[in-house]
Amino acid sequence: MTQINQAAWLVEAGKPLEVREAPMPTPGSGEIVVKNAAIAINPLDTHMQDSGVFVKEWPAILGCDVAGEVHDVGADVTRLKKGDRVIGHAINLVTSQPRDGAYALYTVIRADKAAILPDSIPFTHGVVVPFALEAAVCVLSVKEPGTALPGVSTPALGLPYPSLEDPAESPRKTLIVYGASSSVGSMTTQLATAAGIHVIAIAGAHSVALCQRCGASEVLDHKDPDLVHKAVTAVKDSTFEFIGIFDAISTPETYTRDLEILAQVGGGQLAAVHPPPADVPGNVKAGMIFAVDDVAGPVWREYVTSALEMGRLKALPEPVIVGKGLEGVQLALEKYRVGVSATKLVVEL
Length: 349
Ligand SMILES: NC(=O)c1ccc[n+]([C@@H]2O[C@H](COP(=O)([O-])OP(=O)(O)OC[C@H]3O[C@@H](n4cnc5c(N)ncnc54)[C@H](OP(=O)(O)O)[C@@H]3O)[C@@H](O)[C@H]2O)c1
Prior knowledge:
Layout: E1 5-10, E2 18-22, E3 31-40, H1 43-51, E4 60-61, E5 65-73, E6 85-89, H2 92-95, E7 106-110, E8 114-116, H3 123-126, H4 130-141, E9 147-149, E10 152-153, E11 173-178, H5 183-193, E12 198-203, H6 208-213, E13 218-221, H7 227-237, E14 241-247, H8 252-265, E15 268-272, E16 284-288, H9 297-302, H10 304-310, E17 319-324, H11 327-338, E18 344-348
Parallel strand pairs: 11-12, 11-14, 12-13, 14-15, 15-16, 17-18
Antiparallel strand pairs: 1-2, 1-4, 3-5, 3-7, 3-18, 5-6, 6-8, 9-10
Helix pairs in contact: 4-5, 7-8
NADP nicotinamide-adenine-dinucleotide phosphate (NAP) binds next to helix 1, helix 5, strand 12 and helix 8.
């Protein structure tokens, strides 16, 4: 039977998505085609829709997170086969190719950015993992600074990958994750603690349980007027080497607090998700992550499936299913713009 592809196309910046036919993608070497069962909404998608940023080819298909069945396999793919249940990170952000966008019935995924999803985890849950996972590995395990945007370097914390074993007790390190209820913040907390890092989380008071499920040792309320003092005390009490702050929110307000904390603990890394302040003190190393990097390859290959099976990696934050079918994607983007708290919006296909 001939398969027909459809996509929710962005025809022009600032316009609603239009659902219509799309070319049926074929996988190149090292690629798979996924028949999507669920896709997730990321803030990047709303920025791309609003401004057309990063889009080089029009019309465009946006979206970075897919879960579904492998429909077709390209040459040199040995780890995955037709019919496997998978999650994957779609990289239209980098390639600007419509075939690489998630908001379609079929999407091309690089096999090294995909992993088998255990049968016990529904597609609608597994789909919260891919882009956040890739971002979290880029926060933690990049070893050499690169370039995120012209003139903005990437941070290089050089921390170990998450482990399926209990990581060695020593030498341990302490990291603050600011915005730990967000998708990227909660995934960074999970991967850091699975690498033996002691995480002090900063999140809303209603997200304490989520941060603890992700492995945080301590959770501080981001609305507490005494936040800076409490964070400094937590760092000084931790006895482990302090690495710095991953700021998953990266606004002027959070940067002010980051720099106040770093000033009182003797400096450290400031890893941000947007360009950090240009004028940081000499003892602060600031950089912006770029969440598409081959550094995540070993984590996709060797960690994700087993860790999900063992419950060591959890599909968090919990998804909220906001629609069915490609027509639901525009609605989901609008819901995202209203705001989310400790959740990921998901559309079932
Ligand atoms: N540079 C890159 O490569 C890259 C990659 C991925 C994402 N990003 C960026 O990273 C950011 C996070 O993305 P995401 O998908 O993780 O976002 P998200 O899950 O949609 O973030 C929403 C969460 O942020 C929390 N939050 C908002 N303001 C906060 C504050 N002042 N302090 C602490 N928590 C706060 C909210 O907590 P409450 O419940 O308390 O409201 C909510 O749970 C976005 O700006 C995105 O564009 C960048």
